[in-house]
Specification:
Length: about 200
């Protein structure tokens, strides 16, 4: 199952606010579809599935990628749910988005894919690259790259810069100081339900 490329507001109406997917807000507050307003009580499975889908759509992952992250989080020490969120938040495309270089995660992914972003002085065009404390993220030294990011910086997706990042708007240099803390994750989610969803699937 590949990445979702359909209407984004449809997903937002179904799952709630996803700051990484789109900056627009839907006009209708109920889920899409014929039975959107008359939905019955959700089962426990449906609630867990919804939380998992929030992660998938917000960070723009395929099912296989998310499963790989869950397995990696299980092997690490500490709370699996927290480690999972930290792994996703430290992806390069998400870090570029949180620095304000792009308005959404899909546009940050495009920025990285097209070779506009450098990590520690080298062009990195892999959106899933795992940023580590001490990494310096800069815009490639080309007029087109700098102009593109300059435009995006005028309308950042999220106004607050997380505590683990620092960014100089004048030089367009960002730095990762540490791993993100739970309270700075912008997505409203119960990560334990995601872990439960996958543990039941085996």
């Amino acid at each position: 199952m590949s990445r979702y490329r359909g209407p984004r507001l449809r997903i937002v109406r179904r799952l709630g606010e996803l700051p990484g997917l789109t900056r627009k807000s839907p006009r209708r507050a109920y889920p899409p579809g014929q039975h959107g307003q008359t939905r019955k009580k959700k089962s426990e499975y449906a609630i867990r599935l919804e939380e998992k889908q929030k992660l998938r759509y917000n960070y723009g992952l395929s099912e296989r990628q998310l499963l790989r992250y869950v397995r990696k989080a299980r092997r690490a020490t500490g709370s699996t749910g927290l480690v999972l969120l930290q792994l996703l938040e430290m992806r390069l495309d998400n870090t570029v988005f949180r620095l304000g270089m792009a308005p959404t995660i899909p546009s940050a992914r495009q920025l990285v894919n097209h070779g506009h972003v450098c990590v520690n002085g080298h062009v990195v065009d892999i959106p899933s690259y795992n940023c580590k404390p001490g990494d310096v993220i800069t815009v490639r030294d080309r007029d087109a790259s700098r102009k593109l990011v300059q435009q995006n910086l005028e309308y950042p997706g999220l106004s607050n810069l997380p505590s683990h990042l620092e960014f100089d708007k004048n030089t367009m240099v960002g730095k990762v100081n540490s791993v993100i803390e739970r309270e700075w994750v912008a997505l409203t989610i119960n990560e334990l339900l995601v872990v439960e969803y996958y543990s039941r699937k085996g």
